[in-house]
Amino acid sequence: MRLTSSSSTAAPLVTRSAPPTSQELTVMMPFGRYSVQAQVGIGGMGTVYRGTQLSLGRPVAIKVLRVSDGYDFAFEDRFRREARAMATLNHPNIVAIYDYGHIGTEFLFFVMEYVDGTDLGDIMRTGRMTRELALQLLPQICAGLEYAHSKGIVHRDIKPANIMLTRQGEVKITDFGLAKDVMRAPSMVTETHMVMGTPEYAAPEQFNAHRHVDHRADIYALGVLMYQMLTGALPRGSWQPPSSLLPGLDPRLDAVVIRALMTDPGHRFQNVGDMRRAIEAAMVPAAQAPSRPMPVAQPSAGRILLLEDDLMVRDLMRRALEKAGYEVVETGDGKDTLRLYQEAMHQGQPYDLAILDLTIPDGMCGRETMLYLRRMDPQILAIVSSGYRDDPVMKDCGAYGFAAALPKPYQVEGLLQIVNGVLAVGRRRTL
């Protein structure tokens, strides 16, 4: 069917031209410094080619971006920022950059180290990621990010596609296109309030244009990546700790993931070095771990009523306490806690200790629960738990009837030390 003249009022169809071929790019590159052999990848941040730097005869990767592709989102500025950010970084676990510039007025380019290998996304898609490989690679990823952060550079888009792996098993972090020099520009949201990063790996604060975002956003993304590498899934909804899905996995790795994925940046690892050391410590068999003996409760340790609304934290606490010999009953709301405590008293089997989460957004909080519990049992022994260390209840827990305060995040050893200490004092009072 032929179009009539009335169709002339319709908007013209804009056809996006294909990226230049390898032969075309060889001619377009300035000063004849590079020979381009093949296109090896294409995505939202540009097209990547395999080439050769003729003066040195070394293989290189050449990334090309059409300037007009990203005019709405300042792609040109971000492209230059990637080049400058990467140029300051010299680390074996970060892809090195050699050159960058314009190709006429239409294209931008930069030349970087060619990685003969693949990315983590491909490894996971093809089922080649194993527990052993994940634990071999994670410290390398941490080391690269730790170095970048030490130079004031935050990556902002840590995800499987941006973690390359050479044939020799060496990690190379790439694609710093969203990187931000936090020493010069502390804001990590664009002027149009566009969130930077891939949603599945972005930290909660990256979705809030009014919140300060720093290197701890990379730590959150690394926590997501770690969970995915170990389990093959993303930590969505009420996700289970990795060891619940992988029998035999050291539960100490659960604590690493949970801490990295804390909603509040202040509750996460405060630097990647600490996260790396925690991962490496969990890789050492428990019998050989160079640490103090973990406090172990006596067989007659007693019964604990645990109020905690965060399923992951609750599961971690329950397993640690049960492993130490305690009987644990869990609740996620203060009203259920009151009911269970009252039932236990009527049955003549009172709980020896209650651990109450201070903040329950969708239910009765620990402070209110404690008010009712003290009326029910003036001799109640309880610990308050919270990540808000400056809360009046945490700073002066005794004034609210608590025997001790348990700040989050915490290690298993610290949890057991406080629980054992409170119960020991409580028992002496009853003698």
Automatic annotation (TrEMBL):
Domain Response regulatory span(s) in chain numbering = 303-423
Output the Pfam families linked to this UniProt entry. Answer: Pkinase, Response_reg
The GO molecular function terms of this record are: ATP binding; protein serine/threonine kinase activity
Positions of post-translational 4-aspartylphosphate modification: D357
Segments forming domain Protein kinase: 34-283
Which InterPro entries does this one have?
A: CheY-like_superfamily (IPR011006), Kinase-like_dom_sf (IPR011009), Prot_kinase_dom (IPR000719), Protein_kinase_ATP_BS (IPR017441), Ser/Thr_kinase_AS (IPR008271), Sig_transdc_resp-reg_receiver (IPR001789)
| Keyword terms, alphabetized | ATP-binding, Kinase, Nucleotide-binding, Phosphoprotein, Serine/threonine-protein kinase, Transferase
Q: Which domain of life is it from?
A: Bacteria
Q: Which GO terms describe its biological process?
A: phosphorelay signal transduction system
Residues annotated as binding ATP are K63
Q: What's this protein's name? A: Serine/threonine protein kinase
What organism is recorded for this protein? Answer: Prosthecobacter vanneervenii
